[in-house]
């Protein structure tokens, strides 16, 4: 016996099942993107705290304004720290809990994609 649906009801059920499988695959893809954006945001906040330590200032407050005419202004130091922050943003550190979840969701999305491909073929 083959896996080919023969009756009209079986074909309709297979179409509905494939549609639901496609929805689940797209949901997993969107969750991967949301989790990735969340992890990048948290890592950026952590790097800002490490590279640009500011006393008693929240990251959500207004940005620091620097005076250009003040010779004792810490602008070169802050600019150097911001440049080092831009370098650090390109290579986020390996965090095992993030990478395990990222790998698992990627494997799930790949398995769902291959399942859809095989079902359609």
TrEMBL record:
Superkingdom classification of source: Eukaryota
Transmembrane residue ranges: 6-24
GO cellular component: membrane
GO molecular function: copper ion transmembrane transporter activity
Membrane topology: Multi-pass membrane protein
Subcellular location: Membrane
Entry-linked Pfam families: Ctr
Main location: membrane
InterPro entries named among the record's database cross-references: Cop_transporter
Keywords: Copper, Copper transport, Ion transport, Membrane, Transmembrane, Transmembrane helix, Transport
Family in the record: Belongs to the copper transporter (Ctr) (TC 1.A.56) family. SLC31A subfamily.
Protein name per its UniProtKB record: Copper transport protein
Organism encoding this protein: Clathrus columnatus
């Amino acid at each position: 016996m083959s896996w080919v649906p023969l009756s009209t009801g079986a074909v309709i059920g297979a179409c509905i099942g494939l549609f639901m499988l496609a929805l689940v695959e797209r949901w997993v893809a969107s969750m991967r993107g949301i989790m990735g954006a969340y992890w990048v945001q948290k890592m950026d906040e952590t790097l800002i705290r490490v590279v640009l330590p500011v006393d008693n200032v929240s990251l959500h407050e207004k940005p620091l304004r620097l005076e250009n005419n003040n010779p004792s202004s810490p602008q070169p130091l802050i600019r150097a720290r911001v440049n080092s922050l831009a370098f650090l943003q390109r290579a986020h550190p390996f965090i095992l809990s993030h990478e395990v979840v990222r790998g698992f969701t990627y494997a799930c999305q790949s398995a769902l994609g291959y399942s859809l491909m095989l079902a359609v073929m």
